[in-house]
């Protein structure tokens, strides 16, 4: 296979220095930030259009996408399009007919506080009047006891009068307080005049915080109990009335809570009741409290399967579903949006200095790298914002008035993910103990490549070199041979190893039914999942079966179809950089992944990247020794016999899957 004429030109990040120098700003202080929050959202143009419509028409929304792509920011921006004058105050009153069913009164915003204040003043006046009568009566009672004690020369009468006065005081005080407490309502929801519509983030709330609750009362009798209306606590659904209720990771809500949330959406009101059966509040249920809100439910793609079917149906029937973008095209207009993004992050933080052109250029280059595809920019902006803040902290530490490129580059080293720190130490460990060979050649051992955090919420991948060892032995039982794989493999990884048997038959022409094939993944303490090691496993097995040496300066990654086509995988840039750090010289990657390679400058020229299309290309680049040519000739004869001359082995209708 012929490599690219100038492969290094295709491996690095695009050069944007000339474009950046032409931009009309000196620091991000010169960049204008839109006043409306919705206009500050970067790269989600389709979602912004839907959010505007949903807010104006009061429709519910489901936002699904990767973390850090702007879901909560979009939800928060909806309140800018809601009317201000529709807010309501909610007051709870004692119900004399049924104390366990407090009455609820709805009044315009700003009136609830006035009403409750007036009721408190009236109750205080009555209390003061009762106190004056009480003290007058006590004075008369104790005075009469003192007169009688003086007349009869008996101090016992005075003591009896004092004790009786104390008892009367206790009776009057606590029975009076109980009646006065019943007269004073409780302000459940309070708004100021011209207040903005509420935005309530109910992510991670339990049932009581979401739906409302009734406090437990340890004194439930004897005149010491707290009135039921005083123990009512409104939930997030009530506080979000006439506003927006945002729930991220909606699938984490219990099904019962989702069912109650559905009822609140359907009815537009929901009574407050005790959530715990063991509490005295379990017997209390208020009259319905309004909860006319816009629900914005968010989560990752797997959150949809955890939603109550009826709840999702309600949102779909009365709203929109949006799948957030995780990348955007690397165009000049989108780069300008990233310049504004840096300015927005500095403005929000309020502690770090502004960025100059060179610093912004490094942020854009990092966005290109984290996108994982050439010609794209990442929209996982929360993590990119973390890099902005770390660079700003470094600039403050060095007493710099602006952040420059050196600060950003140092921030990249300082703000490495946990996974990257783990892989860096693993590389040092493997170098010290030589668990990974980087020179010479040997039979049955291949340097595979993997990523540590393929299933995490982080945008960055952390690559690691994983040696794969294969051995072929006679079958241990009469039923035939089998493939035995060790190394804490996941389900997909085990299936990919099983598929190797078909390729061995195809590329060697040998019947392996009377052989056991042992495959070991070295140092995979955290397990292996996915099929990106397929070409490495197949190469190791064929090397062991044919006793042909493998070049140990070569590492490889790629999935395999059962017909021998090398399919694209994920995290190729991180894998190549890990191989370079390990001291390897060449990396084989799927041809389709060449457009995804975005190496940092320090790796350019340090390692050769060879694209491969079929498994035959892999063997031609990985195997060495005197027996290599005979295997390739046998392979050519086998392929020529199975495929017409006009076709290439491996081409067909195989659907490429990204690992």
Oligomer type: single chain
Q: What is the structural class?
A: alpha/beta
Alpha-carbon Rg, integer: 36 Å
Q: Look up the CATH topology of the largest domain.
A: Ribosomal Protein S5, domain 2
Total count of helical runs of at least 4 residues? 19
Give the amount of beta strand, in percent: 15-25%
Named at the architecture level, the CATH assignment of the largest domain is: 2-Layer Sandwich
Overall mean pLDDT: 83
Largest sheet, strands/sense/barrel: 7 strands, mixed
**Biggest β-sheet: strands ordered side by side in the sheet:** 18-19-17-16-21-24-25
Query: What number of domains?
Result: 4
How far the N terminus sits from the C terminus, by CA atoms, comes to 25 Å
Description:
The chain has 659 residues and is an alpha/beta fold. The strands form eight sheets. Strands 18-19-17-16-21-24-25 form a seven-stranded mixed beta sheet, with helices on both faces. Strands 5-8-11-1-12 form a five-stranded parallel beta sheet, sandwiched between helices. Helix 4 (111-151) packs antiparallel against helix 5 (155-183) and helix 11 (357-371) packs parallel to helix 13. The chain is elongated, with a radius of gyration of 36 Å.
């Amino acid at each position: 296979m012929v490599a690219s004429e100038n492969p290094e030109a295709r491996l690095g990040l695009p050069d944007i220095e000339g474009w950046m120098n032409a931009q009309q700003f000196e620091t991000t202080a010169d960049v204008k930030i839109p006043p409306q929050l919705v206009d500050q959202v970067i790269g989600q143009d389709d979602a912004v259009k839907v959010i505007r419509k949903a807010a104006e028409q009061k429709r519910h929304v489901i936002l699904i996408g990767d973390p850090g792509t702007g879901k909560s920011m979009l939800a928060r921006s909806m309140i800018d399009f809601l009317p201000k004058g529709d807010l309501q105050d909610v007051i709870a009153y004692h119900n004399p007919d049924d104390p366990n069913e407090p009455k609820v009164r709805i009044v315009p915003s700003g009136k609830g506080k006035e009403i409750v204040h007036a009721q408190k003043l009236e109750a205080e006046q009555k209390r003061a009047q009762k106190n004056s009568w009480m003290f007058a009566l006590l004075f008369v009672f104790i005075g009469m006891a003192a007169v009688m004690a003086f007349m009869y020369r008996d101090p016992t009468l005075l003591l009896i009068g004092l004790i009786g006065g104390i008892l009367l005081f206790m009776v009057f005080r606590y029975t009076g307080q109980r009646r006065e407490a019943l007269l004073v309502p409780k302000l459940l929801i309070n708004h100021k005049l011209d207040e903005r519509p509420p935005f309530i983030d109910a992510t991670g709330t339990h049932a009581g915080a979401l739906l409302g609750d009734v406090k437990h009362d340890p004194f439930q009798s004897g005149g010491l109990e707290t009135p039921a209306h005083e123990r009512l606590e409104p939930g997030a659904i009530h506080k979000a009335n006439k506003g927006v209720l945002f729930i991220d990771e909606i699938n984490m809500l219990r099904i019962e809570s989702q069912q109650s949330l559905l009822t609140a959406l359907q009815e537009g009101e929901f009574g407050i009741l005790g959530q715990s059966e063991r509490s005295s509040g379990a017997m209390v249920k208020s009259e319905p409290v309004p909860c006319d809100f816009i629900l914005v439910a968010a989560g990752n793609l797997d959150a949809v399967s955890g939603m109550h079917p009826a709840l999702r149906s309600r949102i779909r029937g009365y709203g929109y579903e949006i799948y957030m973008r995780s990348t955007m095209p690397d165009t000049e207009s989108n780069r300008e949006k990233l310049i504004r993004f840096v300015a927005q992050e500095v403005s929000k933080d309020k502690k770090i200095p502004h960025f100059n052109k060179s610093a912004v250029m490094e942020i854009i280059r990092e966005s290109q790298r984290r996108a994982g595809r050439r010609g794209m920019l990442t929209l996982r902006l929360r993590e990119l914002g973390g890099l902005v803040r770390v660079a700003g902290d470094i600039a403050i530490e060095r007493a710099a008035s602006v952040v420059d490129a050196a600060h950003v580059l140092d921030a990249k080293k300082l703000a490495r993910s946990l996974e990257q720190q783990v892989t860096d130490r693993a590389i040092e460990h493997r170098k010290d103990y030589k668990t990974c060979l980087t020179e010479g050649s040997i039979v049955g051992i291949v340097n595979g490549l993997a990523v540590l955090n393929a299933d995490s919420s982080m945008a960055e991948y952390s690559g690691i070199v994983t040696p794969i060892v294969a051995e072929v032995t006679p079958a241990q039982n009469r039923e035939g041979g089998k493939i035995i794989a060790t190394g804490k493999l996941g389900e997909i990884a085990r299936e990919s190893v099983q598929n190797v048997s078909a390729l061995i038959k195809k590329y060697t022409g040998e019947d392996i039914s009377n052989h056991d094939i042992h495959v070991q993944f070295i140092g995979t303490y955290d397990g292996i999942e996915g099929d990106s090691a397929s070409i490495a496993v197949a190469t190791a097995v064929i090397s062991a079966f044919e006793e042909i040496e493998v070049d140990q300066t070569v590492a490889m990654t790629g999935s395999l179809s059962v017909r021998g086509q090398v399919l694209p995988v994920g995290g190729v840039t991180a894998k190549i950089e890990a191989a370079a750090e390990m001291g390897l010289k060449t990396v084989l990657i799927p041809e389709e992944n060449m457009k995804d390679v975005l190496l940092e400058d320090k790796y350019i020229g340090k390692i050769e990247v060879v694209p491969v299309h079929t498994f035959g290309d892999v063997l031609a680049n990985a195997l060495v020794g005197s027996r290599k040519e005979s295997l390739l000739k046998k392979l050519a004869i086998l392929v020529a016999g199975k495929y017409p001359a006009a076709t290439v082995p491996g081409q067909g209708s195989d659907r490429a899957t990204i690992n």
